[in-house]
Specification:
The chain is α+β, with helices and mostly antiparallel strands and 147 residues long. Helices cover 24% and strands 37% of the residues. A hairpin with a 2-residue loop joins strand 1 and strand 2. The protein starts with 6 loop residues before the first helix and ends with a strand.
Length: 147
């Protein structure tokens, strides 16, 4: 049985995806990401990061704690009432002091990525008021480098 979404469903999910995308990648690129990014996940959440599976908020924390700092540039996103699809580029590590750095260094070398999120309403979050964006958590996340 196919589910029919109304224009209002699409508009609500688009606002939620816009809010989520900005908040998620701002948090991912922040100095406090090791503590703050896992809050987007629950113990039952799954993450597949470039083919490597992680489980729950603790798995996310372990994945990112040794990762160099990042700078994401979201180029587009598309959403449906249950999923958010993001594409963009990410640079890892510190910005080099000069542009004369070796091309073999991973620092500040942008890589294209594609990421898919399945968001679900957070049952413990306060109910959103009319016009507010509901609170969600990440149930599933798959990220893959494509370039």
């Amino acid at each position: 049985m196919a589910v029919a979404f109304t224009r209002e469903d699409i508009e609500i999910s688009t606002r939620a995806a816009d809010h989520f995308t900005r908040l998620y990648y701002t948090t991912y690129d922040s100095p406090t990401r090791v503590e703050d990014l896992p809050k987007f996940y629950r113990p039952t959440s799954t993450l597949t990061w470039n083919g490597n599976p992680c489980q729950g908020s603790e798995g996310v924390k372990k994945l990112i704690q040794d990762m160099p700092s990042t700078r994401h540039e979201v180029q587009s996103y598309d959403c449906h009432p249950i999923s958010v699809f993001v594409s963009g580029s990410v640079s890892h590590g510190k910005v080099p002091a000069t542009k004369l750095t070796s091309s073999r260094s991973v620092d500040d070398q942008p890589r294209v990525f594609f990421q898919t999120f399945v968001l679900v309403p957070d049952p413990v979050a306060p109910l959103a008021k009319v016009g507010e964006i509901a609170k969600y958590y990440i149930d599933a996340d798959a990220m893959r480098f494509v370039g």
